[in-house]
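Sample pair:
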Amino acid sequence: MEEYSYINEISKSQNLRLYILEHTLLIEELVSKSLGTILNIDWKKSKSFGYSSGSLSFNQKVKIIQDLKGLNKIDSNKLEDLMMIRNKFAHIKSIETFQDFFELSSSGKVVKKNLDKYYLTKFSLFKPESEEFRYKFYFFHLSFDILSMLMSKMIKHSFEEGEKVGKIDFLNALNDEVLKLSNRSEIISKAVEKVKQELKK
């Protein structure tokens, strides 16, 4: 279906297992990069998030992202669904199609239900040539949604950090000026007291 050829932008593989793995490898790298950004570390050199044999698994990295960034329920569920798809196709040889995945694993039935919930109404005009293509199409959009969410989290975090840095710079400059004043002790005492009162609220 030519109009939906964009679903091959990330992976052009006709082999579904490879198609899924290429998408999830890209997402795993972005998860690592997101964690590096959030924790302010070079993720490529990190023992936890880099390329070493002792680095954390994809599942473990996703759990950390969920803990750190407080994902909403839908985003969290989408990540869980992606991990279930990836894990089954990566580790069970007999699962070669989405139909296999849905029929041979209990998690597959849950994922199928969720994919329908996410995309059946959203793409109501989509008329696939087969059910297999339908779920490949849904998988692409699941991957795309997760990539977009991770990028959004990184951008938001960067903006928040920039705002914090700006506030700290301002407060440091203000502090320098206050220290020059003759009544600085009185001003500082009032400020400290105000902070104490705010903390009690």
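The chain has a mean pLDDT of 82.
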